[in-house]
Amino acid sequence: MVEQTKSAAVNTSDRMSAEERRDDLINIALDLLRESGMEAITIGAVAELAGVTRTLVYKHFANRQDVINAVYQREAAKLHVTIRDRVVEATGFEGRLRAFVDAIIGAVDTHGWLFSPAESQTHEAGFRTEQAGRDRRTVREFAKLAGAEFGLSLREATSAMGILLSGLTSLRLQAHVLTSEADRAALAALYVDLVMAALKGLASGEGHYKGDTETSPGGASGDAAPDQPSPPPGAR
After folding, report:
1. Per UniProt, which keywords does this protein have (predicted)?
2. 15, 17, 139, 194: most buried by Cβ count inside 10 Å?
3. Which pLDDT belongs to residue 217?
């Protein structure tokens, strides 16, 4: 794969725009990461495989860590868009939750090698901050849906979804082990059932938690809870 990338890069090296060149260098670094690990990514290795000088690579990246960061940032953004598109095609809270979970489990095969849960603390601070922002937006969006579906306040729904979505880390770890289609379908169904049961129980007021005093229909009122982190969808 790396040799094929080298050939393609050399053949097209004189016809690339700056944006295309940068993307090509990231592709080469991605192949190096996939085949040989992070340590294989150096400015010299990327330049050699691209058929260009180190100076040209430095025009796009400050150092090897900058190259590595660019790989993770681009792939995480692409994965986020893929998952988001799957979710918006579905309707209702449960439908979108199922689409979200199915997309995350599917990403275990396509991106699991790149974003394994075990590597979540190895990424640089900028990447983690960017990903955390996506996580918070995911929690907020599902909190709005849950509030409308179950009549919870925004505070309740946000806190609940932050806790429930944190279970995606375990879901992805189990999906790495349970590789058959039937096992993964059962895993997804179990997760969705647990979330739905938890929110129904919260809305019923039958547990120890007695609810917000400012709950209104649709979950539109009540102070928002602090942003709750959830694991990146299919990422890390």
Report:
1. DNA-binding, Transcription, Transcription regulation
2. 139
3. 41
Q: Which regions of the chain are under pLDDT 70?
A: 1-14, 116-123, 211-236
d(CA 235, CA 117): 8
The amino acid sitting at 30 is: L
The domain 74-219 is placed in CATH, from the list 3.40.50, 1.10.357, 3.30.200, 2.60.120, at 1.10.357
Backbone conformation region of residue 92, classed left if phi is above 0, alpha if psi is from -120 to 50, else beta: left
DSSP state of 222: S
Phi-psi region of 211 (alpha: psi -120 to 50; beta: other; left: phi over 0): left
pLDDT tens-digit readout, 154-192: 999 999 999 999 999 999 999 999 999 999 999 999 999
User: The pTM is what?
Assistant: 0.78
User: What CA–CA distances, in Å, run from 143 to 7, 140, 224, 227?
Assistant: 49, 5, 10, 11
d(CA 61, CA 100): 34
Per this entry, what is the length of the chain?
Answer: 236
Q: Which fold has domain 2-61?
A: Arc Repressor Mutant, subunit A (1.10.10)
Neighbours of 30 (CB within 10 A): 20
Contacts of 19 (CB under 8 A, 6+ apart): none
Q: Which amino acid is at 155?
A: R
Residues 212-230 have pLDDT tens digits of: 655 444 444 444 444 444 4
